Amino acid sequence: xxxxxxxxxxxxxxxxxxxxxxxxxxxDAIVLAENGQQVAAAVRQARAEGQRVSVRSGGxxxxxxxxxxxxxLIDLSRLQEITVxxxxxTVAVGPSAKGPALQQALAGHGLFFPTGHAPTVxxxxxxLGGGYGWNSRHLGPACLSIRAIDVVLADGTLVHATDATxxxxxxxxxxxxxxxxxxxxRFHLTAHPxxxxxxxxxxxxxxxxxxxxxxxxxxxxxxxxxxxxFSAKVGFTPGLDTHTVSLTATAFCTPEHGAEALAVLEQxxxxxxxxxxxxxxxxxxxxxxxxxxxxxxxGLRWAVDGVWVEGPAEEILTAAAPVLDTIxxxxxxxxxxxxxxxxxxxxxxxxTQAAAYLSPNAGWRDPDxxxxxxxxxxxxxxxVQHLSKGLQFSDNNLAxxxxxxxxxxxxxxxxxxxxxxxxxxxxxxxxxxxxxxTAYAAARR
Length: 445
What we know:
The protein is α+β, with helices and mostly antiparallel strands.
């Protein structure tokens, strides 16, 4: 237990957020838990002292959702245990375990999991928010692979929850994001067969081809099998000194669909204008993580947002022009993730998706640029709002830009389930506008 005013408090507060841009929020105390029993004890103590509770697992939340003013922050960063049961094809994972460690533990058993795209992302926040990870277009969002959870409830009890024993709790854990009303100390997950190979094609084009490339990729998606992860990116590209529009297709090969599915990219009408191309290159998860790490490196100040969109490509791109036309210099880009649709399930509150995901990412160093970068990442999405199908919790927070993270029906049910499990509101939920990083940037100006 580290209390505000202790010598090591400020370092513990700063360490709880991966983003170099730390929020101006100060918990009364921080607990660095070693196991589930310590988490339960901390929750009971907070309840006895009338303190509200927030949680940090991997600390990769762009807005630092776990670091709130007042109350108790329970830091789970030491809960990184991974235990594989290859016979049952399951894996038990601590909330702060990272994707590379989980992939390495599974690889020797011929297994795989749709971990987060960045190597620094912890399982906890990622999977509770839905979990759009590697090969999720084929395997589904990671939350749908939750079999059970070990979770500390608002009364301070630690329970092993399954669909049979706590169906509403498992339903909420599959997609509620920062609105989940408990502290998961271990996830019990279904593991999946490892791809036979991973093959990647990347084309980078002059940025003046932007709309043509984005529209072509959007219209091409239905022709690709689901084991091909398909995206485009406009703006910063590691290794190039100018903004580009880049297409990336990664085939997680199965007996039914292999690298031949990538051939469609070579038929693009603008193919001869690529300034750089990697075609059908076999790769590894370590290499994919290295690429992602260079795109979102540590040590920068970050503002990220995103909106699910659907409709004619021309209509979407016209609406998104204010965002796409004003990408800042430096490590900034707009991700155009071609997702399609994955079937929703009655046992999961996860419910927000669309054909494409438009996500502004701003990375910078100078604190004087905070407000301008925040306004670009969040504010300009107002031009796309009429096409929005909702937001993704991993890249957004209702404090910065209000949108639906769940279907209206599931959001209503979530609040009813929360009232049953946490009637006194012990656990912090979604952040309010006054807590937004944009508001802090504006106040400092």
